[in-house]
Design brief:
single chain; 249 residues; alpha/beta; Spore Coat Polysaccharide Biosynthesis Protein SpsA, Chain A; 8-stranded mixed β-sheet; two-stranded antiparallel sheet; 9 helices; 10 strands; 37% helix; Nucleotide-diphossugar_trans
């Protein structure tokens, strides 16, 4: 099988706005982290995005503005919106919903884990990723340089095949990982299976809100951060470490 396309899976919450202004060609001008994610991921393919890339957005049912912005901005692209109704963020649930419910589920299309605060900086990034997967007949877990903190140590972005996910016999993401650790778990699994491929020259910049003074961080960050902090404490505990290793093994 030749792997020839990628489904960009991204949960998002209140990170895109219509400025009310328009381009010379009449198109709406959007701002916010998700707007940068969309623009950079589409422009950096260099080729026709629709031939290679699909978008799966997971959006809260009450975030109508994001849904409307996506529908306007994504006209002409391959995209879908999966609606979640959780009272709090739950990233594992969102990624698992996307994996199970997406219409872009062809076996030759890669799945991914991405954040709505990421910016694609390398032209033709999709070719580099797909080439590595095809070299290994689909037995690959590819992650790129986040140009922030993680680097080769943790796959804060990644691309893999349904073949790999299904071979684990487990859900796409560990179900109880509400905000953290899904990237570390997958990194460890990929390293143990000897399928991890780190592309240092392919940059997907993680423009994380932690980089900013707290008064400049947005509602999405404030909504998720208490859950992140609680998750850190659980994972750092002996019980948390034991549970994580048991899941991986």
């Amino acid at each position: 099988m030749t792997y020839d396309s990628i489904n960009l899976i991204v949960p998002t919450y209140k990170r895109i706005k219509d400025t009310g202004r328009k381009n010379p060609d009449g198109g709406h001008i959007f701002e916010g982290p998700l707007a940068k994610f969309i623009q950079s991921s589409a422009e950096k393919t260099v080729k026709r995005t629709s031939d290679y890339i699909s978008y799966c957005f997971v959006v809260n049912q009450n975030d109508r503005e994001t849904m409307e912005c996506i529908m306007t901005r994504m006209a002409g692209y391959n995209f879908e919106i999966i609606v979640e109704n959780e009272p709090q963020p739950h990233l594992a649930k969102f990624y698992n919903m996307a994996y199970e419910q997406t219409k872009f589920n062809e076996p030759n299309r890669l799945v991914s884990m991405l954040g709505d605060d990421m910016v694609f900086e390398t032209p033709q990034y999709q070719d580099f990723i797909l080439d590595e997967v095809n070299k290994r007949n689909g037995d690959a877990f590819v992650y790129c340089n986040d140009a922030y903190i993680a680097g080769p140590n943790c796959a804060v972005n990644f691309f893999t095949t349904r073949k790999v996910v299904d071979a684990t016999g487990k859900p796409f993401m560990k179900p109880d990982c509400q905000a953290e650790m899904i990237d570390l778990i997958w990194t460890e699994i990929a390293n143990m299976a000897n399928i991890a491929v780190y592309l240092s020259d392919v940059v997907i910049f993680h423009e994380h809100m932690d980089r900013l003074p707290e008064n400049l961080r947005d509602e999405s960050w404030r909504r998720l951060n208490p859950i992140r902090q609680a998750a850190h404490k659980i994972v750092a505990s002996p019980e948390g470490q034991t549970a994580q290793q048991a899941y991986i093994n």
